[in-house]
Write a structure and sequence with these properties.
Elements: E1 2-12, H1 15-30, E2 33-45, H2 47-60, E3 70-73, H3 77-91
Parallel strand pairs: 1-2, 2-3
Helix pairs in contact: 1-2, 2-3
Length: about 100
């Protein structure tokens, strides 16, 4: 399997941006390759960005993180921590509001 390196930069603070990033280029790349997200230029990640990105990707590829098909590199400790918390939330069954079954 090929490896694709994606460079993220700046503050990552909007869930809408995370959904756009996931749907426009990360999901298509995960379909055919392992993805390494290079976070060397990321200055901040909010929980809303991390949750939206991670939960969107794991909804499509649930084993991507544990199978190391989706990894981070060069992330500052607090950047890494936000993504790890998002993975933990997903593994505990927490989902985005758009991913929950609708109440009848």
């Amino acid at each position: 399997m090929n490896v694709e390196v994606i460079q993220l930069e700046g503050p990552l603070n909007l869930a809408e941006r995370a959904l756009s990033d996931a749907n426009s280029w990360l999901l298509p790349k995960l379909a055919t390759a392992s993805v390494v997200i290079d976070c060397a230029r990321v200055t901040r990640v909010t929980p809303s960005y991390a949750n939206a990105l991670v939960m969107t990707l794991l909804a499509a590829y649930p084993d991507a993180w544990t199978a190391r098909r989706l990894t981070l590199r060069d992330a500052l400790p607090y950047v890494w921590a936000e993504f790890e918390k998002a993975v933990d939330r997903y593994q505990r069954g927490i989902r985005l509001s758009t991913q929950r079954p609708q109440c009848a």
